[in-house]
Amino acid sequence: MIPFVRRGDGVHLGLSAGERGLLTSLTEQLQQVLGGELERDPVAARMFPDAYPDDLEASAEFRRWTQSDLLAQKTANADVVHAWLTGAREGALGPEDEQAWLRCLTDLRLTIADRLGIVDAATDERSTAGDAGVGLRDVYDWLGYVQEHLVTTLTA
Amino acid sequence: MGTAQAYGRAPCQVSLPDGDPSNASRDPSIVPSVPVRVTLDGMTLLHPELDERTSVDADARPDVPWVTVVWDDPVNLMSYVTFVFQQHFGFSRDKAERLMHQVDREGRAIVATGPREAMEAHVQAMHGYGLQSTVDRAPTP
Asked: Beta partners for A4?
């Protein structure tokens, strides 16, 4: 299905029930990741990158000042997306919902990229090879399609 | 930077190979099943008395500006990065696309210049969008 549909009053979800189900599961897993031992999870390095790559101390200082806010935002974004997926929210996305969707899809892709070991073009390419059947890489690509479609729909 | 290659072949829609992602043959789990051992430095604040912004700027010359750098990464899509540049910095689409291509081609681009605190606010915002972004001293002319 087309993931998003623009109507007179704004952008609506167009995902099929199966797609909603998968995305709901992924979003719930993201909520677990965000609420879990994030400091032990390598995806934290992608979600909260060093602000000063050559200065560990300044990076740590930056993290102290920003990480809890960023984490709260990411958690809120996942909660918003989950509410839309499960039907707790419906109708047209508001501006804050659009932001939550864009950012949550990014966090999902950052997390899956970490699980797939995608750190550069070569590992990106490698992760597409060899896995028979529909796996995490296909989900990653599909999420990219969903996000691309949302950006296109919002900017059209 | 992630490109639209995987989902860009068809003009408007791409499905997973079997047509429905809910039919994924194995559970697409992203929750770590085993404890991971990577630790980030300085993630915990154990000394509240240090929770003040001091001393970091001691050696900074106030007349030297700082920059916000956005780095290439394999995950974020070109369209999304362009969108973020337009939305956060208020750049025109042309300028946003030019910077996005610079990130893609050269691995990084300076997207803002100014006082350190303002650059840190931009970097925090970029991290909020999921982009890889850092603060740096402005290159000396």
From this structure: A13
